[in-house]
Design brief:
Elements (H helix, E strand, L loop, with lengths): L1 E4 L1 H12 L13 E6 L3 E7 L3 E8 L1 E2 L2 E2 L1 E5 L1 E6 H9 L5 E5 L4 E6 L2 E6 L18 E4 H9 L16 E6 L3 E7 L3 E8 L1 E2 L3 E6 H10 L6 E6 L3 E5 L3 E6 L18 E6 H11 L10 E7 L3 E8 L3 E8 L2 E4 L4 E5 H9 L5 E6 L6 E5 L5 E5 L6
Amino acid sequence: MEFIINNECFNKAISEVSKAVSLKTPFPILSGIKIIANKNCLILVGSNSDIVIEKVIPLTIDGINVLEVYDTGSVVISAKYLSEIVKKLPDNIHLKVNENHLVSIKSDEIVVNIYGFNSEEYPSLPQIDEAKYIKIPSFELIEIIKQTAFAVSKSESRPVLTGVNMSFKENHLSCVATDSHRLALRELAIESNVNGSFIVPSTSLNELTKLINNEPGVIHIFVTDSYMVFKSNTISLYTRLIEGNYPNISGLLPNNLKTIITLDTNQLLRGIDRACLFASEWKNNNVHLEIKDGTKIRIFSNSSEIGKIEETQKIKAINGDTDLSISLDGSFLIDALKVIKEEEIRLSFGGSMRPVLIEPIDNSSYLHLISPVRSY
């Protein structure tokens, strides 16, 4: 196996696949990156058995030659040392592997020799059915992940709640995340011939958003018995699915609403952000909302040692009961408001001890639920 590759291109690919490599693994070969040289491309693979990242480097990128393959083959090289070596080399990299898996890396007058592993011992990728897939534009996939994944549970006591529930049904995608105190739901029309409900680890989805952030075009999603695969033109992420049944959320959505108000999204976000300054003393970052005179909302928080902060904001529209006072986790509110793009939002209340429903105006495909907290 022998090839010459552009340093910058190789370094970026190593950095991307290294995100799936765990240095603390009982299997030494999984601490390495698998490199496969084909006649028309170079493939790099990193894995920790729960997540696999595969990067394809073609011979040319934007009309510029970045790779020349002289001899095909494959090898596994320590991710840690390969990454550090390539970062420190000044120019194009000439990599050559002999039959004993000894890797020679040359750049200008620098020569590095490093022992590799036999690539046949590296775990094979899960098999996917290319005929069954979901198509989604990369920017829409990134948006739907950002609007839901933050609401997953940080506790491992209920593993299913640490993932995002992705449900595909008749060209329709529904993503739900909840930690049992808050819930984010986003729906999207897509092109799909797959039906089913799958729980995807939020850590994998967050990694995916970084990988495809600069990847224009369409992402193809494939599903196997235990993996979900996200593929763009040059990068693929395989993630193991979380086993178990996701809770049925249809009964959680409130229908007995007593008060509905419309507010300016950014203005409310800034107000909650200010109120959180004095909310940290409370376990739940308590921020209090109260309707004043039927026309304004009062936002306030206090700290017994520091002081208190309060402000009022104009309500754009109000329906129902004008007597309302509720305490919410300010950080939960900020998380929800940050990912809403629409200028105005609707807050719907069923009472001071019922979850608050947050929806963007003119967008029924996204909603957020936040449970109130006790203010004593």
